[in-house]
Amino acid sequence: MSSASYKWDSKSYEKNASFVFKYGEDLLSLLDPKQGENILDIGCGTGVLTKKIEQTGAKVIGIDSSEDMIESACKLGLKVYTGYAEHMNYNSEFDAVFSNATLHWIKDQKSLIDAVYKSLKKSGRFVAEFGGKGNVNAVRSALHESFKKRGIDPLKIDPWYFPDKAEYKSLLEEKGFFVEFIELFNRPTLLDGDIEEGWLNIFCKNFLNIISEEERDEFIKELVTVLKPELCDKNGKWTIDYVRIKIKATKQ
Ligand code: BEZ
What stretches of 98-243 show up as alpha helix (H) in DSSP? Predict the structure, then answer.
């Protein structure tokens, strides 16, 4: 769930982003973990889904780039550690690699896919879901416009990678994966709270930290004003325009 050079707050994440785990449960059925299997969970975050995998009798290891997230996951008694998935160096150790809502934070997808491939046993499966082409477009466009207005190039700070189906399928196939399943779909996601506390302050720190503390409230207010007509209903409920890419690929 978390990425390089990003300061995550596990408490705020668990309070406001419970939809991440809720939707992640569907992905667990695609993973279909079995008793005794060795499974790696990339971007394990606070360990909610990692624990569910473990409860099936599988032996699971979680990796996440955020120390704060890993501290929380440790409290669930899980085998987890802080690290970057694109730099890991496992060799034919896992029956399956799982990842929910994380891979869009990794720009170097070639290294990531190499590392995942190498970590799997022959016929091992890679099951993942993350942001696909068009993901969070309303928020992303509003952020880009606000930065351009201030003379800052948003492309230099935008941390996200949202591929389309054809692009990701070729990356996997180039490495040698057999792509059993790949799907791109809209998944509008209702927030538990408002967009400022429930989304911008959790997921947009790369952007917000560029703005000085004195100007930040004004910057956020401007974003909320732009986004309200598109993302907020008449009862004050916010829905983010998520688009997901979901894959199942096997090592040949
Ligand atoms: C996502 O899960 O798609 C996502 C979350 C936060 C920022 C960008 C994308």
Answer: 109-119, 137-149, 165-175, 195, 201-203, 205-208, 213-231
